[in-house]
Write a structure and sequence with these properties.
It is a single chain. The protein is built from one helix and eight strands. It is an alpha+beta fold. Strands 2-1-4-7 form a four-stranded antiparallel beta sheet, with no helix packed on it. Strands 3-8-5-6 form a four-stranded antiparallel beta sheet, with no helix packed on it. The longest helix is centred in the first third of the chain and has 32 residues.
Length: 110
């Protein structure tokens, strides 16, 4: 009689471990399927000192000697950077629909 009790306790413990493992695998699979796809360019036009850039994506230089006027008519946020190649630190964002002076050396939009 004791052997059956020990066996059933062990079987239940094994079933709980198996269920936990299957649950962890299902969660990992759900996360893998939910990862975002590749990045796309912003839709619209980004004006830098009056020059239009259609569906812009990436890093754009701003004026070297004077701050640039930026008009963001896209659906993405444009980030003004202190460095010339979108490096250094982010100075400020330029939101969609916003006209602003870019007080930095470059601008990044995705």
């Amino acid at each position: 009689m004791r052997t059956r009790t020990r066996t059933s306790v062990r079987a239940r413990a094994r079933a709980r471990r198996t269920a936990g493992l299957l649950g962890a695998c299902a969660a990992a699979a759900a996360l893998a399927l939910a990862t975002p796809g590749t990045a796309q360019a912003a839709q619209g036009v980004l004006f830098i000192d009056g020059a239009p850039n259609g569906d812009p994506s990436g890093c754009f230089p701003l004026g070297d000697f004077a701050p640039s006027e930026v008009f963001n008519l896209t659906d993405g946020v444009a980030w003004v950077w202190s460095g010339a190649n979108c490096d250094g630190r982010v100075v400020h964002p330029i939101l969609p629909g916003q006209l602003a002076i870019g007080h930095g050396r470059s601008l990044f939009i995705e």
